[in-house]
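1st attempt posting a full record on here, be nice pls
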Amino acid sequence: MKESELKALISLLDDEDREIITHVEQKLASLGENVIPFLEQEWESNLNPLVQSRIEDLIHVLQFELLKERLLNWYEHGSDDLLKGMWLIASYQYPDLEYVKLKQDLEQIYYDAWLEFKQDAHPHDQVKILNSVLFGKLKFMANTKNFHSPSNSMINCVLESKKGNPITLCVVYMLVAQKLKLPVYGVNLPNLFILTFKEPTYKQFYINAFNKGLIFSRDDIENYIAELRITPQNVFFDPCDHRQIIKRCLRNLVQSFGKIGEHAKVEEVKTLLYHISGENFSDL
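the predicted structure (as tokens):
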């Protein structure tokens, strides 16, 4: 479609006829993501608040459809890249966020850890070194004051503020640990996401990134499960895959947006969860 035709369509967004507005929005939406830059330009040059608002809504619809497509593609074909999955979740709130920027930020954290790391140390000591860098030198910490803030589930916000929830702190920890060749993986516990060090040579142990990398044992998990009066399951002790991590992040976001009354966003994140896995949040 020519630029003049696009401009003519957008000029109709201030029409009072709802049927005309709907037709224009559907026509523009059918053009897909390629029309987003043009809509952004029109938003900047248009002085009508009503038209600007309708352009904003249209851009959001297009960006959301693009996110659904990208997230499903990641879930089905690219889930080996956990950082990319976390980037996609963050792009819901920050559509202009660049994946390359996140990789650079993680690379710097890895470099800080690598400078002090000892490949020949005992696994417990290796974890303690990583703890010292992440929670001592770099000051990563649990965001206990604003635990339910949606920003805790946004990897870019966590890397910037150094504060997060259990799962995002674990993700940062795990990405750095694995780059250091440590066999550290996520574990889906009820009400808490943790990490495990698991490989054939050493006895498996666990790491609580939400508590400054505290090391603990399987017995501690069994006691925790007993206190919750939940039947023990293998999933509470063994590594989970990246897709499980992303689904848990989406569930966290549903709860976070619900806590602050962002009901439209609650429904959209539920849509993302259902779109990639067929799971209804209410059934979980």
